[in-house]
From TrEMBL:
<feature type="domain" description="HTH arsR-type">
    <location>
        <begin position="1"/>
        <end position="95"/>
    </location>
</feature>
<dbReference type="InterPro" id="IPR051081">
    <property type="entry name" value="HTH_MetalResp_TranReg"/>
</dbReference>
<dbReference type="GO" id="GO:0046685">
    <property type="term" value="P:response to arsenic-containing substance"/>
</dbReference>
<dbReference type="InterPro" id="IPR036388">
    <property type="entry name" value="WH-like_DNA-bd_sf"/>
</dbReference>
<protein>
    <submittedName>
        <fullName>ArsR family transcriptional regulator</fullName>
    </submittedName>
</protein>
<dbReference type="InterPro" id="IPR036390">
    <property type="entry name" value="WH_DNA-bd_sf"/>
</dbReference>
<dbReference type="InterPro" id="IPR001845">
    <property type="entry name" value="HTH_ArsR_DNA-bd_dom"/>
</dbReference>
<keyword id="KW-0804">Transcription</keyword>
<dbReference type="GO" id="GO:0003677">
    <property type="term" value="F:DNA binding"/>
</dbReference>
<keyword id="KW-0059">Arsenical resistance</keyword>
<keyword id="KW-0805">Transcription regulation</keyword>
<dbReference type="Pfam" id="PF01022">
    <property type="entry name" value="HTH_5"/>
</dbReference>
<keyword id="KW-0238">DNA-binding</keyword>
<dbReference type="GO" id="GO:0003700">
    <property type="term" value="F:DNA-binding transcription factor activity"/>
</dbReference>
<dbReference type="InterPro" id="IPR011991">
    <property type="entry name" value="ArsR-like_HTH"/>
</dbReference>
Amino acid sequence: MINPSQLFKCLADETRLLATLLIYKEGELCVCELMEAMDDSQPKVSRHLAQLRACGLLTDRRQGQWVYYSLNSDLPEWAVGALDAACVGYRKPLDIALKTLSTSKERPNRC
């Protein structure tokens, strides 16, 4: 189970923070959706998602060619509370990325 120092170390990078908050708000996202919302390259987004998965914040599932990332359902309540607080503190960049995501026409279909 993740401890506070691991959580905050994982979220100390802005790319990892924004990706985690987008996934938290949306439920699950694939790399292509995060690339568009964050205006970042595939290698950069994938590298950060791998780090978030390795530290236990995210899990993934494969559907055809897509890999979807979601928040680890085993996160302790205090960690989810920290994400709620981060959504408030990082509201402007998060809102911009969510708006970009909501207007995307190329989102994959989920089963």
